[in-house]
Amino acid sequence: MKRKFSLAHLTVLQWTPPEMIYNAKLIGYDYVGIRSIYMGLPGEPNYDLSKRDRLYQLTKTALEETGVKIHDIELAKIEKGRDVLSYEPAFEVAAELGATDVISSIWTDDKDYYLDQFARLCDMAKQYGLFVNLEFVTWAAVKNLKEAKEVINTVKRDNTGYLIDTLHFYRSKVSLSELDDIPQEKFRMVHICDGPSEIPTNKEDLIFTGREGRYYVGEGAIPIYDIVKKMGEDVVLSLELPNLQYVRDYGYTEHARRCLETARRYFEVNDANCHCSHCN
Fold first, then answer.
1. pLDDT in tens, 115-165
2. Distance separating alpha carbons of residues 198 and 213, to the nearest angstrom
3. Residue 75, preceding bond cis, omega within 30 degrees?
4. Distance from C-alpha of 254 to C-alpha of 190, rounded to nearest angstrom
5. Does residue 153 form part of some domain?
6. Containing structural domain, residue 58
7. Are strands 69-78 and 5-8 parallel, antiparallel or unpaired?
8. What is the CATH number of the domain that holds 44?
9. What is the per-residue pLDDT across 164-188, written as a single tens digit (0 to 9) for each?
10. For residue 199, what is the DSSP state?
11. 237, 268 Cβ separation under 8 angstroms
């Protein structure tokens, strides 16, 4: 089968969107996922295309010249003090540039609030033809698949589904069987990376690996292939693999190339050895 690979912005966060797109073409990615919703985090570059006309034009030109597509934008956080309607300019620009998906996650324990906000987010996204992928994050308020299912099943919007990040899947101790009752059309993309077998017990160490120390696919203990196989052959494999040491060793371009090379090799080997019906 022909797997589709996307380069997630967190892997190469210092690259601007057009720089990402040109390099993704050179390296061999099919898509990019851009962080065009500015969160104001320490050291985070601002790639808000809705407020930076030149960056928008450069991004549009890069897409036209390369044929690489924007698959998704991030991050439409659900949190207190931020109305989801503030994301509309980013959604409008994403739709103009051909993106089809947006990533969201939930960072408040107020269930009534986050269910209302997430439903409103999905409704607004639908106006722009965007599918909302809810990601559970090990140190967030919605931190496992069970809690994500509750959100999806409660809001009942047809343009929403699940974004599994293999690191969070492993570290939130989700079982493979928990994926069995989810229709495959609810999985449009998956964040893939590997990680160590040990699961930290404190938030700081969880965050460190998540943002700075992920492994190349096949180098760690996460059953990535078994997870992805549950989602069907059309799921986009988005390489979210920030690792500051790898970047210091190789530079961003070589790191991004190694992300793709190791992932492709991993899936080629496992697809060749798989005996399920859609692999044969």
1. 999 999 999 999 999 999 999 999 999 999 999 999 999 999 999 999 999
2. 13
3. yes
4. 22
5. yes
6. 5-273
7. unpaired
8. 3.20.20.150
9. 999 999 999 999 999 999 999 999 9
10. -
11. no
Tokens of 140: 């967030």
- Cβ proximity of 27 and 250 under 8 Å: no
* Of 167, 147, 154, the residue nearest 106 (C-alpha): 147
- Split at pLDDT 50, 70, 90, the class of 280 is very low
Q: Which amino acid is at 70?
A: I
Cα distance between residue 134 and residue 137, in whole Å: 10
Annotate 110-133 with DSSP letters as a single string: -HHHHHHHHHHHHHHHHHTTPEEE
CA–CA dist 144, 164 (Å, integer):
10
Amino acid identity, position 203: K
Specify the DSSP element, H or E, that contains 163: strand 160-165
What pTM was computed for the model? 0.95
- Residue 110 · residue 141 · CB < 8 Å: no
- Could you tell me where the beta strands, DSSP code E, fall in the chain? 5-8, 31-34, 69-78, 101-106, 131-135, 160-165, 189-192, 236-239
Cα–Cα–Cα angle for 257, 258, 264, rounded to 5 degrees: 95
What would the two tokens of residue 51 be?
């407020």
Query: Which residues sit opposite 118 in a β-bridge?
Result: none
pLDDT, residue 40, reads 83
Residue in the structure block whose two tokens are 């109305």: 83
pLDDT in tens, 88-106: 999 999 999 999 999 999 9
The answer as to whether 278 is a domain residue is no
Among all chains, which residue has been given the structure tokens 């967030």? 140
Q: Residue 163 falls within a domain, yes or no? A: yes
How many folded domains does the chain comprise? 1
Taking the C-alpha atoms of residue 216 and residue 254, their distance in angstroms, rounded to an integer, is 13
pLDDT grade, residue 43 (50/70/90)? confident
Any domain includes 279: no
Measured from the Cβ of residue 129, the count of other Cβ atoms closer than 10 Å reads 14
